[in-house]
Design goal:
The chain is of the alpha/beta class. The protein has two domains: 162 residues, Bordetella uptake gene, domain 1 (D-Maltodextrin-Binding Protein, domain 2, 3-Layer(aba) Sandwich); 99 residues, D-Maltodextrin-Binding Protein, domain 2 (3-Layer(aba) Sandwich), CATH 3.40.190. It has eleven helices and ten strands. Strands 1, 2, 3, 4, 5, 6, 7, 8, 9 and 10 form a ten-stranded mixed sheet that branches. The longest helix is centred in the first third of the chain and has 27 residues. 44% of the residues are buried.
Length: 331
């Protein structure tokens, strides 16, 4: 009698595993995401300690740690305009335990730099932390009373030198927005940091700069060394409400700030991303955190993951137009 043929033992085992393992992956992935986090979370800040993004990151980490029940540990990895830290996270396991404190450079670097160590879609937006409105400042004895005076004066002669924190930084975009949209004649002069930029203004090496409120306000309010011409965000700074916005002064398209958000490696489960976004949102609404940050000139934001995705998409389009118009791309 004909006997049914038998598969070799190894072949049969391989077939069984091929059938079972994908099902196991489906059944265990969701519980793993639901249980997250079960160990400390690493939050990579791609800038040096002490700046606006670092401070916002630490406030978010402190609040999220309490909400999530696990430590959120800050890891400062500065370099290459934020690219060094971003690359670390882009190449990390997408398990929710290595995250990036993002800034405008996460969006603009790939538009400007010749080469990047990772692709644009290697990082996905998760949550907005907050923002430090940018403040356009000049030396205290400068003759300009407002931003209009400064822009008009720059059109005469050889123009003005305008300090930035490097190519693609927020101050760089402020200068180019004024050039492209309003005909200003500002020559961006790159420095290594916002602190160096403000020092250059104080020393008379440049005519002005734009810097995060947390850096600029102490020089204005405590030391009286700067004259503030405008803030470049859509609303006035809580800690300095007497300073009008650029929009109020007639510069409707000059809207930019030093924002901080959180990005994660592509492939991180949506359940983890949503849980993290909710924790950051809750942390940014804690009364003590709000009071602390606003006192420093920082506006806590929070919000949903969908809102942050919408924000980053809009910023990518808007900044991309400035990069092209101002020819900011590296040669």
């Amino acid at each position: 009698m004909h006997q049914p043929s038998r598969l070799p033992r190894r072949t049969a085992l391989a077939a069984l595993l091929a059938t079972v393992l994908p099902l196991a992956g489906v059944s265990f992935a969701a519980p793993a995401a639901d249980a997250w986090p079960t160990r400390p979370i690493r939050l990579v800040v791609p800038f040096s300690a002490g700046g606006a993004n670092d401070l916002m990151a630490r406030s978010a980490a402190e609040g999220a740690s309490k909400i999530l029940g696990q430590p959120v540990v800050i890891d400062n990895r500065a370099g290459a305009g934020g690219t060094v830290g971003a690359d670390i996270v882009a190449k990390a396991q997408p398990d929710g335990y290595t995250l990036l404190v993002s800034a405008a450079g996460v969006i603009s670097n790939s538009m400007i730099k010749k080469t990047m160590p990772f692709k644009d879609d290697a990082l996905v937006p998760v949550a907005m932390i907050g923002l430090a409105p940018s403040v356009i400042v000049v030396p205290k004895n400068a003759p300009y009373q407002n931003l209009r005076d400064f822009v008009e004066a720059s059109k005469k002669g050889q123009g003005f030198n305008f300090a930035t924190a490097g190519t693609g930084s927020t101050p760089h975009f402020v200068a180019e927005m004024l050039n492209v949209k309003y005909g200003a004649q500002l020559q961006p002069v790159p420095y290594k940091s916002g602190s160096e930029s403000t020092t250059a203004v104080l020393g008379g090496q440049v005519e002005g700069t734009s810097e995060a409120s947390i850096i600029a306000l102490p020089h204005i309010l405590n030391e009286g060394k700067f004259k503030a011409l405008a803030t470049t965000w859509t609303q006035r700074i809580s800690a300095y409400p007497q300073l009008s916005t650029a929009v109020e002064q007639g510069f409707a398209e000059l809207q930019i700030a030093h924002w901080a958000g959180i990005h994660a490696p592509k492939g991180t489960p949506a359940a983890i991303l949503d849980k993290l976004a909710a924790a950051v949102d809750q942390a940014m609404k804690e009364p003590a955190t709000v009071e602390k940050l606003k006192g420093l000139g920082i506006e806590p934001i929070g919000g949903t993951r969908a809102e942050f995705v919408k924000f980053t998409d809009a910023e990518r389009k808007r900044l991309g137009e400035i990069v092209k118009a101002a020819k900011m791309q590296e040669k």
